[in-house]
Design goal:
By secondary structure, the chain is an alpha/beta fold. Helices cover about 50% and strands about 10% of the residues. The chain starts with a helix and ends with a helix.
Length: about 475
């Protein structure tokens, strides 16, 4: 009896060990003939420099030990990278082949998965290992709603409100503006109108020369997150697996009234490639943008005549009044493309190493991106990493990473658009449709005023309900056509 019991225990132990290790696939590599991996990403400046440094560290340590050599290649901006990935997946003439690993958002990965093959990374991680990552970051990578992890998180970001504190303070003091006034989008619109009137009044001999107060970087986030705050998922999937677009007219009107209308009135602006560029030229004072854009927030305002230093301040991104506390969860993950067993395994080894707390926090310290493991998502852990490794960190980069990690809104209230085949194309419409119209109409209004039309009359031709109705119909049709292609 005792002998039989011992055999049963040993058998159960072996089964237990087998079930624990079966989910982690390993492949024998040769350190004398290292596997070479190519990585595409969208990092630039200090972020790219830190990514390259970490790749170099990996190559000299774990990579050397196991036989792996990685090399990163920046494709430019996020948009440039997306275009390069789509071109490679479509096998366009002149396009490069997809690398072993590339940065991508879930919607882009979903849209090209029928043109190329991705590696299911869950086979290289135990459940215990995956549990060390922020749950929503990992969940975003299951783009097919199954058990296959195709997009692996390596760094995340959210949106914040950044302001030129130096130039804001005189206006705020004279007009009794406080930070409570820009906690909501409606508050931002009101403050922006006050700022336009305040700056216009400073030159009484020059009418209609008020300055814009605000801008935003991602218009797609404005739609996706704005509608979610108001209780609507802009895209959903029906029972047959087909995408549906949800655009309640009353809620779209709120988005219109708090972007298009203040834009054509001159209260908002978007001139440079990014809104940090517009702060640098003095075109605007504040913007909503990615938390990782903090490092690009200018230290000076530079005009044709002067250059002067400014200070910054960081706040939570505004939400719609009476809206839910929802913030964007963004930041591209990494996809591993199908290749040899050795290359696929080597890719997983690098991703696992890169997202270890200390390595990931070093990347955070240089880039303002957020770490992806639970124990690393802590401002004190960031302080410790900086101190222990004697890292030279920009104060603003540290400030914004600390702000977001202490706030934890991305962990508690983060939201990202669901992936579907046409999501990449749909996001392009969200990014450009309304801002293009606002910019075109603003130019027409300015020209009409220069030609002698009163400001009130020129604006009334564009800010009326008929203009909204016309835009709403065309916008809805454009999205509907895109998602049904």
């Amino acid at each position: 009896m005792k002998k039989q019991l011992l055999i049963s225990i040993l058998t159960l132990s072996m089964i237990g060990c087998s079930s624990t290790t079966a989910s982690t696939k390993t492949v024998k590599l040769d350190p004398e003939n290292p596997v070479k991996l190519k990585i595409w990403h969208y990092y630039n400046g200090a972020t790219q420099a830190e990514f390259d440094t970490l790749c170099d560290t990996f190559n000299k340590t774990e990579g050397k030990e196991k036989g792996i050599f990685v090399e990163g290649y920046s494709q430019g901006s996020v948009s440039d990278l997306e275009d390069a990935v789509v071109a490679a997946a479509d096998k366009e003439v002149g396009a490069d082949e997809l690398p072993n690993i590339f940065s991508t958002y879930a919607d882009t990965a979903y849209s090209i998965q029928d043109k190329t093959q991705f590696v299911d990374l869950s086979q290289y991680f135990t459940k215990e290992e995956l549990d060390t990552y922020v749950d929503s970051f990992i969940q975003e990578g299951y783009i097919n709603n199954d058990d296959k992890l195709y997009v692996f998180p390596i760094a995340k970001s959210t949106e914040v409100f950044l302001i030129n504190k130096t130039d804001f303070e005189p206006f705020a003091k004279e007009c009794n503006i406080t930070e409570d006034d820009f906690k909501t989008m409606e508050g931002i619109t009101k403050v922006a109108e006050q700022y336009y009137e305040w700056t216009d009044a400073q030159t009484p001999n020059i009418p209609n020369d008020g300055k814009a107060f605000y801008g935003r970087d991602s218009m797609s986030n404005y739609f996706v997150i704005g509608l979610k705050q108001l209780g609507t998922d802009i895209f959903s999937i029906d029972a047959d697996g087909n995408p549906q677009v949800n655009l309640p007219k009353d809620k779209l009107k709120r988005l219109w009234d708090n972007f298009y209308v203040p834009y054509v009135k001159g209260y908002f602006a978007a001139v440079g490639k990014f809104r940090s560029d517009d702060v640098k030229t003095g075109t605007i004072l504040a913007y909503t943008g990615s938390s990782s854009s903090a490092m690009y927030f200018p230290d000076t305002v530079e005009t044709d005549e002067t250059s002067r230093p400014i200070e910054y301040d960081i706040f939570s991104a505004p939400i719609f009044s009476d809206g839910k506390d929802v913030v964007v969860q963004q930041g591209a993950g990494m996809v591993v493309t199908k290749s040899s067993e050795e290359e696929e395994y080597a890719s997983s080894v690098f991703l696992k190493w890169f997202t270890q707390a200390e390595n990931n926090l070093s990347f955070t310290a240089a880039s303002a991106y957020l770490p992806v493991q639970k124990k690393a998502f802590d401002s004190q852990a960031l302080e410790t990493t900086i101190a222990d490794n004697n890292l030279n960190v920009q104060q603003k980069t540290k400030d914004i990473a600390t702000f977001v990690m202490d706030d934890k809104s991305i962990v508690n209230d983060g939201y990202t658009m669901i992936p579907f085949k046409q999501a990449y194309a749909a996001r392009k419409i969200l990014d450009y449709n309304l801002i293009d119209k606002a910019q075109t109409d603003k130019q027409a209004i300015d020209q009409a005023i220069q030609n002698g039309t009163s400001r009130e009359q020129a604006l009334s031709n564009y800010t009326n309900d008929a203009t909204f109705e016309e835009w709403y119909t065309s916008f809805k049709d454009a999205l509907q056509e895109t998602i049904t292609q």
